Structures are given as C-alpha cells and as structure tokens.
Amino acid sequence: MSRLLNVEESPAAAAPAGPSMAAFLALGFRPLYIAGASWALISIALWIFTPQLLGEPMTLVAWHAHEMLWGFIITIAVGFLLTASATWTGFNPLQGKPLAVLCILWCVARIGFLLGGLTGFWIAAAAELAFFLMASIALARVMIKGRSRRNYGLPALILMLGVADLLYLLAVLQGNYVVLMERFDLGLIGMAVVALLIARRVIPFFAMRMVQGLQIPMLARSGHVQMTFSVLALVAGALVQITGTPMTPGSGPHALPLIMAASLFITGLISLGQLLYWKPQAVLRKPMLWILYLGYAFLGIGLLAAAWQFSNLFDPAILSGVLIRSATHVHLIGLAGFCILIIGMLTRTALGHLGRPLALDRSMLAGHWLMVAAVVLRLAALWPSAASLHLLHLAALAWVLSLGLYLWRFVPMLIRPRPDKPAPVSTPKKAAAAPVAQAR
After folding, report:
1. Could you give the CA distance from residue 165 to residue 171 in angstroms, rounded to a whole number?
2. What is the SS3 assignment for 313?
C-alpha cells in the first residue's frame, strides 16, 4: 500500500538554496502547479472583471468553461499524476527539457485561446492536444516500465480527456451552445473519474498518516463498483454525442441519458458512503485533511445533482430556476468538488514533495478558508436575486486571494531544490529515478 500511495517526503531543517531551473523542472508538479494556479487566478479575474478582453471565436461562457476545466483543473491533475507516478513506479515520467516542452505547449494553448482569431485558435488547439498526448505517453511508459498494473488505465483516461477537449473545441466552432455544454459535461465526467480514482486512494492514506491511531478500511470492493459505474456514465455520455440523443430539459427520458444518470447517481451515493467510512469526525481539527474530505463530499453531491439533471425525469414547467440549471451540477462538481480538493492537494502534496513539515501556516490556512468562501458565494449567486452580481464579484475576489496566497507562499519553494537534497543534475534516464526512489 505504501508503495502505491506514498506521495510525500521527509521534512528537512537545512536552509533553502537559491532558485534552480534543474530543481524547477525535476518533477511535473513544480511547473504545472504554478502554471495551473496562476492561470486560474488570471482567468477568473479576466472573466469576471474584464470580459471585453476575450476574443473570438471562443468567447465568454465557452472560454470560461474551457479554461477552468482543461486549463486549470485537468492541468493540476496532470501535474499530480506526473509526480505521483514517479513514486508509484520508481521512474520519473518527465523532467528537464521534455517537461519544459510540455509546459511550453500548455502556455501556447492558453495564449492562443485568449488572444482569439481562427489561426490562434487552431494553433492553441494543436498545442493543447499535443500536451495531452505527450503526458499520456509519458505516463504509459513509466506505468509499463514499473509494472504498475493497477494504474494502467490512467494514461488512457488522460488521453480521453484530450479527446473530450477536441470535441468541445469543435463544438465551439459550430456555435451550438447545447452541444457545447453536453461536450463540456463529457469532459467534466471524465475528470470526475480521474478525481475519484486519485482521491479514494490518497485521502485515507493521508488521514491515517496524520491522525495517530486512525484506521480506515480501503473499501476496495466499493471502489471497483464506483469506478465501473463512473466509467459507464462516461461511455454513455460519449454515445449520447455519437448518436445525437437529445438531453435538453423537457425532451423526455431516453435510454442513454437514463443510463448515464443512473450510473452517476450510484457513483455519487458510493462516494458519500465512502466518506462516512473514512471517519470524518476524526479530522475536524486537521485543516489539511478536512479540506480534502469537504471536496470529496461536494463531488459526491455534485454527481447526484448531475444525475438529476441528465435523467430528464422532471417537468421544467413545474421545476424551474436553480433546480434545472446545468450551472448547478457544473459548479457543485467543478468548483465545490474539484477546486476544494485541488487547494488541499496543491498544499499537501507540494509540502510533502518539497521536504517541508506537513503543517499549515496562517497564509495556507487562510487560502483554504478563502477557497471555501469562494465556493459558498458562487453557489449562492446561482439563485437569481438582486445580490447575485455582488455575490459573484465577492466569490471572484475570494478565489483570487486564495490562489494568490498559495502562489505567494509556494512559488519560492517550487523553484528551489529540496532543502535536504542538492539540486538535481542531468543524468541518464536509467539513473534519473534514483531521487524518486529515495523519496519513497
């Protein structure tokens, strides 16, 4: 178990060295955590406060949805997997120049989608697809080399997220908002599969390591059922797109959306059930843990809301407002679920891999509470009222402050070597895994 889940390193007392490009490009989490968090801060500020700067052809809601999911959330997931897989397998998927190339592809995509224009759009799309292809190949290589059979599906999932991205970008050019949001949901569910797979493994492990005497069952059987139904929901969603099955409210129930909804409902229930088995009362005084529990709870609730939305079993003439808005399940899963989990994982895994004490200082704790505030305010803004715009602006401000605090605190650490190890140097590929092996 420790071989699969140990994604932390021992703290050290030595004074930090100066910034080092070799250290910065030593593991995927270092540049991608900075890139993802920075872009999440910038893109929300642009979306809320200066939307007039967004260009064609991907404007307003389409740009915001894409950049939050693929530009931020999935980017952080890729950074985590490129790091954790090094521990799971003993081989570093990407470091040095190849990792720099991956980051450059990511930057080209962000700039191209922001500046607009059809040429910039296609350059950005090509760069982003190359990003996913390169990441999935790197993950597959080390999974096979390290014989990490349990994780063979992860490279395929990353590749599928890239395919969902392509489908979304094609829908942008079609200008069909309904199709656009259906393909966004496909990417959202694909990311939910990845998030469930990661969180179900690491949250109990982190909790048992931090809370003395805490024992949590691994719930392997429920995890397998959870994965089966979440993948079934993803497949049903893909078939909805292939067959053109209508999913808009009032179109009536259809077989594929019902399968998708039922699968998501079961997945969400299992998630909430697992949370109870993880003994949440034991982590209430551990902010580094309860933030992860809270994100996982919202992810389960969001999946139940998505099941309600996709089932089409309600009459929109009777139920209206927030109950039938697609923004409800999108923000429950994407903001309350993914982003609360992300702020916790950004902190916990970075401290572990950087050889720092596993404890939150005041700025880190403030960042956690600000992210929770951003979620509460944004969800409150979903209810139409005279205060909605003000709530939206406050949510954006809390979001910017949360990620700003994270970057202020962690960038100086992420660009420096671990204080207990010298800066990495260029080594042959076979020897490059040594620092990772020492960290386990």
Report:
1. 10
2. coil
DSSP state letter for 90: S
Give 56's pLDDT tier (boundaries 50, 70, 90). Answer: confident
Cα separations in angstroms, 313 against 248, 261, 300, 423: 11, 10, 20, 58
H helices of 278-337, in order, are 287-311, 326-331
Rounded-to-integer distance, Cα 262 and Cα 232, Å: 10
Please name the residues in contact with 218: beta carbons below 8 A apart, sequence gap of 6 or more.
1, 204
Q: Tell me the domain boundaries of the chain.
A: 18-175, 215-359, 371-412
- The full DSSP string for 173-191 is HHT-HHHHHHHHHHHHHHH
The dihedral built from the CA positions of residue 73, 75, 76 and 82, taken in this order, carries a sign that is positive
Query: Cα(158)–Cα(181) distance, rounded to whole angstroms?
Result: 20
N-terminal to C-terminal alpha carbon distance within the chain: 12
8-state DSSP, 383: S
* Side-chain half-sphere exposure of 15, counting CA atoms within 13 A: 1
354, with CB counted inside 10 A (0-12, 13-18, 19+), is buried
Q: Are 338 and 306 in contact (CB under 8 A)?
A: no
- Going 348 to 352 to 355 to 357, the CA torsion angle's sign is positive
In degrees rounded to 5, what are phi and psi of residue 165?
Answer: -60, -45
Its pTM stands at 0.89
Name the DSSP letter for residue 69.
I
- The string of pLDDT tens digits covering residues 4-44 is 444 444 444 445 578 999 999 999 999 999 999 999 999 99
d(CA 205, CA 32): 24
Q: Which two tokens stand for residue 371?
A: 């992210």
- Coil, helix or strand at residue 247: coil
pLDDT at residue 130 is higher than 60? yes
CA–CA dist 43, 10 (Å, integer): 35
Q: CA 216 → CA 67, 202, 203, 204, 266, distances in Å?
A: 36, 12, 10, 6, 22
**DSSP letter assigned to residue 385:** S
> Residue 197, class by beta-carbon neighbours within 10 Å (0-12 exposed, 13-18 middle, 19+ buried)?
buried
- Give how far Cα 237 sits from Cα of 110, 183, 231, 259, 268, Å: 27, 9, 10, 9, 16
